[in-house]
Design goal:
Elements (H helix, E strand, L loop, with lengths): L8 E3 L3 E4 L5 E5 L4 E5 L1 H10 L4 H7 L5 H13 L3 E3 L34 H5 L1
Antiparallel strand pairs: 1-5, 2-3, 3-4
């Protein structure tokens, strides 16, 4: 597979990279899937989104060209990225969530030793 080298890449907005302790993942919210990735690929995406592959290889003095090509082949194959000369036209998806409710969720511990009225708690 020939990978575009001179056009900036952009992560698809509904593909969210998530950093893990030993490995990371990309959560594809549209497809409802999770793909595990190395932490190095997570760092490359976060640090270099909007750059060309040619620029990324140059920054690493061409020491990791083969790995970078493999990473981008993977990202293209799974449709996590696309190439564009106008990345500003593709904003990131807002990650804020708003609710009109004062309380959105709760954990209620129930057991024989608890002496409260569960219905008052729920009310």
């Amino acid at each position: 597979m020939k990978v575009e080298q001179e056009t900036p890449f952009k992560l698809i907005a509904n593909c969210i990279p998530v950093k893990g302790a030993k490995r990371s993942s990309i959560c594809d919210l549209h497809r409802g899937s999770i793909q595990l990735i190395p932490n190095d690929l997570y760092e490359l995406i976060k640090k270099h989104e909007g750059n060309t592959i040619k620029e990324i290889k140059k920054e690493y003095n061409h020491k990791y060209d083969t790995i970078i090509d493999e990473y981008f082949e993977f990202l293209i194959e799974h449709e996590f990225i696309f190439f564009t000369t106008t990345p500003e036209l593709f904003p990131k998806m807002p990650m804020e969530w708003q609710s009109p409710n004062e309380i959105t969720n709760a954990i209620i511990d129930i057991g024989r030793s608890y002496k409260y009225d569960i219905f008052k708690v729920l009310d």
